[in-house]
Amino acid sequence: MSTKLGTRSLLAAVVLLTAGCSLTAMGCSSDGGGVRGPISQIVGRALAPESDGDVKNTVPLENANVVLLTYDEDGNLERAQVGMTDADGNFVVEAEAQAVIAIVVEGATNDGEVDVSGLYNPDQPMIEKDLDPATSVACVAGISAIGDDSITEEQLDATRVQNLEDASVDYIDANPGFDFYDADDVNAAVAAVRAATNDGANPAAPGAFD
Length: 210
Description:
The chain has a four-stranded antiparallel β-sheet with strand order 5-4-7-8. It has a three-stranded mixed β-sheet with strand order 6-1-9, with no helix packed on it. Strands 2-3 form a two-stranded antiparallel ribbon. The chain has a single domain, classed as Carboxypeptidase-like, regulatory domain (Immunoglobulin-like, Sandwich). The chain is of the alpha+beta class. The chain has helices at 6-14, 133-147, 158-174, 183-197; strands spanning 39-45, 47-52, 55-60, 65-71, 77-84, 90-96, 101-109, 112-120, 126-128. β7 and β8 form a beta hairpin. It starts with 5 loop residues before the first helix and ends in a 13-residue tail after the last helix. The chain is built from four helices and nine strands.
């Protein structure tokens, strides 16, 4: 039997989400007296696969919750709901400069509830990146690597994120039966991407997933 809600269940398994808001962000303000550092505005679109008979389409996650995950000083993840997508799946998030963050969009398609997520390094005024199954696999891979102490959040820099995302694209392309709604499929993709890139330290070798 297929296990659905792949990214949602896996993200819940690998992150410790604490209640409340740790910084000023879209739709969520801190109790600590305001913004403490440079701000990156992150814009993107949340996209997920959806079945139409035997055809898989890509659809926007409309009116979906947008969640910001940040690491606190002790290396724990904190969760803040920071808004919603619009009818086209677009989102805008403001994040304080730091090593790495994750954005998770919690939505639904005709196939059921689904999350798409992505890693960002908020070190410039504007960052544009859409979220999809490949960025989601890379996100879970990166968070998992930090969670099991294979790397630190400071090591999950732009190069590692790109290596994880590129490998995730390659893995999905090499596995046409990959089901983003199946937890076992997502878990296998995460493990393969982590192994092929040494947790993002290097690009996956050509044909690594053939």
